[in-house]
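Pipeline run #58 for the internal structure catalog. This entry was flagged by the ingest filter as a single-chain record with no existing model, so it goes straight to prediction. Upstream metadata was stripped on purpose; only the residue string is passed forward. Reviewer on rotation: M.T. Logging verbosity set to normal.
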Amino acid sequence: MIYPVILPYLQSDYGLSLTVAGSLVSVLWLFGSIGQLPGGILADRYNERTLLGLSALGVAVALGIVVTSSSAIILFAATALWGLAHSLYPIARITFLSKRYEERLGSALGVTMATGDIGQTVLPPIATVIAAGVAWQAGLGFVAPLLLVAGIVIFIAVPPLRTSTGETSETGETDETDDPISLRDTLGVFRTLRRPEMAMMSLILFLYIFIWQSFTAFYPTYLTSVKEIDPAIASLLFGFFFAVGVIVKPVGGAAYDRIGMRGSLVGVLLPPVAGFLLLPLVDQLWALVVITALISTMLGSGAITQSYLADSFSDAMQGTGLGVIRTTTATLGAGGPLVFGIVADYGYFNEGYIVLAVIMATVILLTLRMPQTS
């Protein structure tokens, strides 16, 4: 989430249009999506601790290449590497939590996702100050050593859990299961995906990712260029968007555990519809704070949808199933920043948010057609 707040600096240094800058964010999410299928397969086969640690270390290395890139081509290539390294983390996190907190997955996932939002609240404003006072390379690069430390801490602190065969790793080393996953097991994933409710949830997830990536990629730029907000204030508003997520995500996860997917998901997606519709109409800072809070309730959907999907697959094929869905939906959704960048380049920034409101309303209607779970 530091990338969106430094996009203006990248546009200036590399001579990028809004469309090309948007495609840079799309590349990050595209490769972060493509890698989730193999990442999910690996999560079914190997100890999650190894994948989580390698992901953190890999992103740190990729960031080092990004901030030292001498051309736009190298910048794009390094961003792709960053996305691939990141892709090892999401599914391994989910399968790890699903084994450790089998009866409270929604709550556990909501809490861990909320702690991520603490970082997304604090780090973008820090990055903005550093980028303005030193250079954008420092504003992004200061995270790399933190990730190196985090990767080492993961290897030390995260406990080894049972593998997909039900065995427990005693050493914490990379543990391959005794029996390879059969072709029949793999085809079982696709049989699960053919169920109507899974197809519907995949469509919901794709539309949500499209909205989320479009909004986060350009919100700081929109605030500075259209609303004429100071960049430092814009970064604080952007951080506030994730600060609300610190509260919403645990609430959304707990709601999933208590009332099921449909009611909890509709509850967190209704406010953003109003927020997107009102955003082009206001310019006052206090009103933008309120609207940012309304839009940010959508962050609670992650704990809900990911828990629902994780509960839909067997333990042995959970990572693979999540990988198939997340890779497909997130790869398609990664086009959001590119499309939104084109819309903004043609002068239709405000209209773009109206379209996001319509798409979000469509997601709510699709959710209401899902079978009730509890």
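catalog note: The longest helix spans residues 196-225.
catalog note: The mean pLDDT is 85.
status: ready for reviewer M.T.
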